[in-house]
Design brief:
This protein is mainly beta. Helix content is 5%, strand content 37%. A six-stranded antiparallel barrel has the order 14-15-16-19-18-17. The N terminus is likely disordered.
């Protein structure tokens, strides 16, 4: 039995380590200098700066990840249709703060008023724009959060200027990698809720209708999505986590989105009914387009805590975000996995 918090606490600073390594040039393609009888080129010197325990860095690209403001509670959600937000159920209900699983008693007491929940889009909640208000809540017909901490908030209008993200219809597996997003309040931001992202986080455990990752979260991240690194679609919603949103041993539990496709269909029918009640006669909604997987590898940086991957690499005159790699964990196109220390390897750009 585990006991964890449904809402995490603020983040702490991140230690960094600096490592200098030498990367040998790989031999492939045209003949090497040695094969041509010429002296081989000097190996490229690489410096790695890594931040080990940080929630993430500001994200300006994930517009479908939205903030939910319910007055005395603030959470994260993701727009999965033009008027449908996927989030954690405890963000839309009066529920127990400390959740032990498996549940020994009821953990949900009652739903909040949907009309009291406002949804905002933007990088910073302080300057975000209002997308809409809640019109209805569609949640599992159980009174526990274990394996069921997920819900849909139907909006009172179509969200303008935001492209929804699709929910993956295939589950997540142990060893898969995800991107994590949420409107947490990190230390040093004056209590502001800003959208943060963490990239290339490995799934440690899958159990029932949940999965666990080894990454911290902060107050306000609840309900935030985990996106498949392979497809870019939504695979999970943050349910709960261990105390200390910057602790290296922190773990977070996500509810699998694919386990609730029937609930999503019910929410879509409710959204259709409410649009008809408002007299909105529009063509059927198109499914969200299939997203393109994104990566920060190759983005410019000066330190590891500037990268969603927490790794900044300096290779000659260039400094860019990298990430760790290894057997079964291939680097993006244009990069090779190279050992930088015993048991440590990062993605290094292929040299021309």
């Amino acid at each position: 039995m585990t006991s964890v918090e449904a809402a995490a606490v603020p983040a702490m600073g991140a230690p960094r380590g600096l490592v200098a390594v030498v990367v040998a040039a790989a031999a492939c393609g045209p003949p090497s200098a040695g094969e041509r009888g010429e002296p081989p080129p000097a190996p490229a010197e690489v410096f790695v700066d890594s931040a080990e325990t940080r929630r993430g860095v500001p994200s300006v690209r994930d517009h479908a990840v939205v903030a939910l403001d319910g007055g005395d509670r603030q959470c994260t959600g993701v727009l999965v249709a033009e008027d449908l937000v996927l989030t954690a159920r405890h963000c839309l209900a009066e529920a127990e703060r400390t959740v032990s699983c498996p549940a020994a008693e009821r953990q949900i007491h009652r739903a909040v008023s949907a009309g009291g929940v406002r949804v905002f889009a933007g990088y910073d909640l302080g300057s975000a724009r209002l997308l809409g208000l809640g019109a209805a809540i569609v949640a599992p017909a159980v009174d526990v959060l274990c394996d069921h901490d997920i819900a849909f908030l139907v909006l009172d209008r179509a969200a303008e200027g935001v492209e929804p993200l699709p929910v993956e219809n295939q589950g997540i597996a142990r060893g898969d990698f995800v991107r994590l997003l949420g409107f947490g309040r990190p230390e040093g931001q004056g209590g502001r809720a800003i959208r943060l992202e963490r990239e290339h986080v490995r799934v440690r455990v899958t159990q029932g209708q949940e999965f666990i990752v080894g990454a911290p979260s902060c107050d306000g991240d609840s309900g935030g999505p985990a996106l498949s690194e392979r497809t870019g679609g939504v695979v999970g919603i943050l349910s709960r986590g261990t105390r200390g949103c910057a602790e290296g041993s922190a773990e977070n539990v996500y509810t699998r989105a694919d386990a609730f496709l029937a609930l999503q269909a019910e929410a879509e029918r409710e959204a259709l009914r409410l649009r008809a009640d408002r007299g909105e006669l529009r063509p059927p909604r198109k499914a969200p387009p299939k997203p393109r997987p994104t990566t920060s590898v190759g983005a410019p940086c000066t330190a590891g805590d500037e990268c969603p991957t927490l790794v900044c690499l300096t290779q000659g005159p260039r400094s860019y975000c990298s990430r760790r790699c290894g057997p079964g964990d291939r680097c993006p196109a244009g990069y090779r996995c190279r050992e930088t220390a015993p048991g440590e390897a990062v993605c290094v750009a292929r040299e021309s």
